[in-house]
Design goal:
9 helices, 315 residues, Peroxisomal Thiolase, Chain A, domain 1
Length: 315
Amino acid sequence: MYIHQVAAYLPTHVITNEHFTRLNGLSHEWIIERTGIRERRKAEAGENTNTMAVAATEQALSSAPGFPAERIDLIVAATYTPHDTIFTVAHAVQLAVGVSDIPVVSVSSACSSLLNAVEVVQGYFAMGKATRALVVVSEHNTAYNNEDDTVAGHLWGDGAAALLISKERLAPEDLHVVDIITGGAATVGKASTAVTLKPVERGIVMPHGRDVFTHACQYMAKVTRQILDQNGLGVDDVAYLIPHQANLRITNNVLQSLGLSNDRAISNIDRLGNTGCAGAAIALAENLDVLKPGDHIVVTVFGGGYSYGAMLLTR
């Protein structure tokens, strides 16, 4: 299957590190040293997970005249920060594009949900139940975040991305989805408590950051090697690595573990913070023009609950 277009939506409201210095005394330098984050985006009043998803979808469709909305026969959306748990983000996108009587699925597997959503599409395509799919990933982290939390309150940003995916190639520049691997590692470390979001309690909480860091580094490197190995490729064949945009130190650790130079990683963590399952897709959208024919790109992700995955793309 092929990714025909990727587009992102980012709120215009920028929150710099100085906001947290004023709020709870965390210095700009300390935040950069620990996370690599300089600023992040925050949804305005009236914006939410669904509106951002719709905006990203409209951008993707407007950039792809060869992929009209009426041809979409599957919508899969992902988020862990829902605006509505019943009229889901996938339903909101379906209403916006105006295509009825097609499969509409919402998934949530923390920050790795992008690849779970794409894998759902892969399954529908394999069963012959769809040929053109819309995948949307959207996070409204600031709706749940506790900014007073000095452990994780400064990490989160908002944003969305939409991917138009077809079973057959539609244009020479389409990205070939060569392979996808996903997995859950809820049985290891402190997976059940390391990152949680219980809306009736304190919002997003990360009491075991070191455990998250350790397992994220291990699993993202491990699954990257795995997907390369099973496709007869080596690390030297990778033009770009797009990791989950969680923490620059995690990215750097994964690069070091794989033996990749810093210029091989695509990152937006410094400008956008942790945008959850939307982060890697936003990074892909922002760098589509950089990718050249023959390039191999690996998207590697890790999320709370210790879910993980990798996707191999070739232009």
